[in-house]
Amino acid sequence: MTGTIIVTGASGAVGREVVKQLAATGMKVRAAVHTASKGEVFERLGIETVEMDYARSETWAAAFNGAAKVFFVGFAGPTFAELSRNFAEAARKAGITHFVKLSAFGADFAPQFYIAKSHRESEQAIEATGIAYTHLRPNVFMQNLINYYGQAIRDTGRFYLAQGDGKVSFIDVRDVAAVAVETLTSGGHEGKSYTLTGSEALSYYQVAEILSRATGKTIEYVALSEEQALQQSRDRDLPDFLIEIHKSMDAFGRGGGFAPVNSVYKQITNRQPVRFEQFAMDYAEAFK
Q1: Which residues of the chain register pLDDT less than 70?
Q2: For the chain, which residues make up each domain, given as ranges?
Q3: Which run of H or E residues covers position 14?
Q4: Tens-place pLDDT, residues 246-257
Q5: CA distance 180 to 138
Q6: 188: buried, middle or exposed (CB in 10 Å: 19+, 13-18, 0-12)?
Q7: What's the CATH fold of domain 4-138+173-196+260-270?
């Protein structure tokens, strides 16, 4: 395959791993970052970078120039569908032949879950442009435990959610990136949507036990009530749509919405997904 692959959100958890894995295959990859300083890590590795801002459409042309495919990362919110449509349409007009979107678990079946609903609207907006697409719908990232709760775990040995004993089929970001790379570098994935899970469903109580064993320190999951979680969001003066995101995510999780397990990852990569025990050992230092 010729032509450069653009990775948007390249400094984020998934984008960074997609860039890394694409570069390891020898493919031409262009890391799109919001500010030039975020691209320095890629430049040191000899990876092309481009400064691109979704809010400034005049920056898109440089990202698209000479490229063949796009890995698109965006965030749920009130204007997400409009952005997705505009960006995908600009990509199509620039000659992009395949648009791979990082979507969300539940986009096809959980309209009550704000993030899933927003991502489905984004998917539909992309599809309406006529560009060849693939949607990746991963479940909760294992690395979220570090990015969102790592500081609290390091400082207090505790983390707090309002998801009761609901189970989650967590998936490692490295596995999400592996599927992204496969869909970007091989044929037959156009027009398809892939829901990605790990191989097991764990409650946050079980997660705390596994992290405790891996780190050698006691880590505790504290289950908040819906009212306690809502008050925390209000105390942080979050915008209404972010409060709704947290509220709907917690309700979805408490009801077992994140628990389903499938074998899609293995079907695409011919490998078993990373188990949570392996993740905990690999990233143990991040929780100490």
Answers
A1: 1-2
A2: 4-138+173-196+260-270
A3: helix 13-25
A4: 999 999 999 999
A5: 11
A6: exposed
A7: Rossmann fold (3.40.50)
